[in-house]
Amino acid sequence: MDRDPLESIQQALSLVPEQRQRRLRTFRPGPDATLLPGEAGPPRGPLLDLASNDYLGLSSHPSLKAAAMAAIQREGVGSGGSRLVSGTRPCHVSLEAALAQWLGRERVLLFPSGFQANLAAVLALADRHSEVIADRLIHHSLLVGVQASGACLRRFRHNNLADLRRLLQRGARSEPQRRRLVVSESLFSMEGTNPDLAGIAAACQEFGALLLLDEAHGLGLLGPGGRGLAWGLAGVSLVSGTFGKAFGAGGAFLAADGPVGEWLLQTSGAFRYTTALAPPLAAAAAAALELLQADPGQGAALLRRARRWREALANAGWRRPPGEGPVLPLHVGEDALALDLQRHLEQAGLLAVAIRPPTVPPGTARLRLVLRRDLPHGSLERLLQALAAWPHAPIP
Questions:
Q1: pLDDT tens figures, 127-153
Q2: Which of 92, 96, 131, 139 is catalytic?
Q3: Among 152, 206, 213, 387, which is 20 to 30 Å from 197 by CA?
Q4: 160 an active-site residue?
Q5: pLDDT value at position 39?
Q6: Residues 54, 214, 215, 335: which is the catalytic one?
């Protein structure tokens, strides 16, 4: 009897608990996203967006829209080819040069997505003979890169410099000639936390390790003028960044010094074998960079607002969200509680999405609150009132 080749996949799907099943949800664009009808029932009213990563509210900025439309008229929608064949456009070259100058790096290469950039970054710096020492909570794209590289993976406790130094020291003693790559992030997107990057960079220099820093959620917000935590810091071998968050556009890049940038150009399959970033997105990212340079205090202002929100949540009995960035997790523990709080806030007109395993460890389900620069006055008060009406006690 022939066996259905999809049977094992169907069996695996049947084992996914209902509370961890994912469903696509569609929202109308606008200042307040509105949920469209779906399996959950009739449409609800306007929802205040406390979930997206458009930190500085630039995705709808007139300058970005005008730049994208001008690029469409001038160069078309798609690039039509790889950067090494026919896909390179003047907007790519000028954006790479502007980013390199802004970040103080010798070379920048653009990628269509942050996932792709992270994959390329790890594969450029590690292979099956290498050891990767990564923060336990790094993004899935970085873990996929490690798996693809074949490197030996060791993980240090989240933002624990002492644990990282222990692993580096052990490796330097046992296999001093082995290449080591340390991987961390400047702003962990589900935790809201930030590392001691100066300490990490110093440890990497002391023990002869490379350092890859994912600044996807930090650029535009952290560091002087929003240049990120790696700006001006020695010992960071490669920086990964995206345009889909604070830049309000789409696409990503890698920034490097010395031979690393040239090595990427010569060897990266993730760069070579993909259609180049769409010109409208490159043009919009360039417009966003100009806005950041014209008003370098945007990120700092948002961080000050985030501190006020953290204090208010702590005063309301919630565990104070860690870190300094605009990501504020509300820990509730169980998946069902997180989904219940999400539905409760939606009924109050607030969009905040429940984050459950495998995105976060089991037992740490949470709502991920995200601040944006363009949130209207009174947003914090609306949130606090809704949280106070939730029938379950906050997790202190």
A1: 999 999 999 999 999 999 999 999 999
A2: 139
A3: 152
A4: no
A5: 37
A6: 214
CATH number, domain with residue 262: 3.40.640.10
Same domain, 163 and 251: yes
**pLDDT confidence bin for 32, thresholds 50/70/90:** very low
How far apart are alpha carbons 279 and 289 in whole angstroms? 15
Mean pLDDT, the chain, whole residue set:
92
User: Can you give the pLDDT at residue 1?
Assistant: 53
65 is annotated as an active-site residue: no
Edge-to-edge, what's the strand order for the sheet holding 152-156? 107-111, 252-256, 238-242, 210-214, 180-185, 131-135, 152-156
> Is the backbone of residue 223 left (phi > 0), alpha (psi -120 to 50) or beta?
left
Residue 36 in this model has a pLDDT that exceeds 60: no
Q: How many CB atoms lie within 10 A of CB 90?
A: 13
Is 63 known to be catalytic?
no
pTM, two decimal places: 0.91
Q: Which of 61, 92, 245, 344 is catalytic?
A: 245
Specify whether 262 is catalytic.
no
How many domains does the chain divide into? 2
Write down the catalytic residue from 130, 141, 186, 189.
189
Q: Are 43 and 53 in contact (CB under 8 A)?
A: no
Residues 106 and 43 in one domain: no
Which CATH number do you get for residue 47? Answer: 3.90.1150.10
Residue 25 has pLDDT above 80, yes or no: no
Rounded Cα gap, residues 93 and 110, in angstroms: 9
Same domain, 107 and 40: no
The answer to whether 106 is a known catalytic residue is no
Please indicate whether residue 54 is annotated as part of the active site. Answer: no
User: Which residues form the domain of 158?
Assistant: 62-294
Catalytic residue among 185, 191, 335, 346: 185
Has residue 347 been placed in a domain? yes
Two tokens at 48?
């205040």
| Per-residue pLDDT reduced to its tens digit, 196-239 | 999 999 999 999 999 999 999 999 999 999 999 999 999 999 99
Domain boundary pick from 261, 294, 327:
294
Residues 219 and 326 in one domain: no
- Which of 294, 323, 349 finishes a domain? 294
